[in-house]
Amino acid sequence: MANANSQNADDKRVVDVKEPTRRSLNSAAELIVALALVLIAVGLIVVLAANLGTSADIRKESQESHLLAEMQIALTVVEEAIAAWQVDPTRPHPSADPEIATAVSQFDERRAELAALVDSDEIPVIDGFSDAFNTYVQTAMGASAAAEPSEVQTLIALDLAARRPLLDLLEEENDHLLESVEADRRAEQWLRWGSPILLIIALLVVTFVFRLRDRARQLFDQRRINEAQTEFIGSVSHELRTPLTSVVAYAHELRDRFEDFSPAEIGEMVQALVQESDEVSAIVDDLLVAARIETENLVIRPEALDLREEIRHVLATVGDVANVAIDAEGHVLADRGRLRQILRNLVSNAVRYGGDRIRVVGGVHGGEMLIVVADSGPPVPIELHGEIFEPFNSVSDDDGASTSVGLGLAVSRNLATLMGGSLWYSHEDGWSRLNLRLPLPPSPNGKPKLPESLQTAGPGV
């Protein structure tokens, strides 16, 4: 069973041409956010990498400076030992001095470690320093006990020759260290100020994109509402045109050819005029109620009503209801006109879209009055259970023709809510059901039990 807002399971479908576009917009917005976040994350990674790189350079230069300092200490130890031997010949000869041997060993170790750290262009300078140091040491070890002035001058010259590359290395390493420190300072400043800026930009981008998406969603929703209202106006025109055409035709026939018809034919035509006029009145009533609900200008006057009598009254105005069975007893607290409007919409919906069998069942259930209009028609798809109660949904046949106004169930649900009840759809045991719950009168004239058809199946039919 479908209604003015629903679809028949075989040939009805809800048409929503804007939903794919809105999904595409949402996907695009999410993609922009993701790209912005990725770019910002890459920026932060670059900043952190630069900071880590400068820190690594500082550690490397510091280690190189430390090794050069160790080599300088070894050279100084050798210089002091040789100078002490020259002043005091009783001291051990440089070739037998353990201090010199230890210093030379440490120098060679530090030289190997330094060569593994420095760049390739610095290796020749280190090798030159090492060669000058070794030459100085070997010359000192070969010096005689009573060194001639020429030998002393040679040692001094060799000492100075070793000192010069050492000073060059120290100066170069000091420059590298200063450059690394300066780079680290810049990276630290960028990390300190750049990171918050990037985060702020990220927040602004995300906020902007989400606001843009919300705005676009509002525009699409508004466009959808406008288009639905346009379609609604077309549906109203179509719905009103059909009964009005019959009313106009019968009225003209009776006016122009009244004498040509028999009393039986006149009675049939008058009955048709009444039915078509009631159809127009029902459509106009739904429109007026929808407008009053929208403006919160609808007055509800609840009273105790005999449910069976109200159902019979509605069935007498619907039309072809020969296949409708009634099994309802008890009183309900509701506005008479609005209850009849709901029942008329539910029964008309079942007659128009339902199966060949229709039942109206009502009775007390759970401290409330449960009224079920059920038919043997096909079920409404699960994804449309909520949408069939929404106004202005575009419902079309396969050829695109509009099938109804689209307000019946929407108005009925709103009226049920205003009267303290509820309205929902279900499909159980082969029956499509529109379930209406309404409150009981404060002092009902008896509380009949729930009809057996509802007792056996619970909420089902």
Average pLDDT rating = 77
Low-confidence stretches: 1-18, 394-405, 454-461
H/E order of the elements?
EHHHHHEHEEHEEEHEEH
Q: What is the makeup of the main sheet?
A: 5 strands, mixed
Shape: rod-shaped
Estimated radius of gyration: 50 Å
Strand content range: 5-15%
Biggest sheet strand line-up: 3-5-6-9-8
At CATH level 3, the topology of the largest domain is de novo design (two linked rop proteins)
Write down the CATH class of the largest domain: Mainly Alpha
In total, the number of domains comes to 2
What gap, in angstroms, lies between the N and C termini? 14 Å
| Residue share in helix | 55-70%
How many H/I helical runs? Answer: 9
Q: If classified by CATH, what would the architecture of the largest domain be? A: Up-down Bundle
Structural class: alpha+beta
Number of strand segments:
9
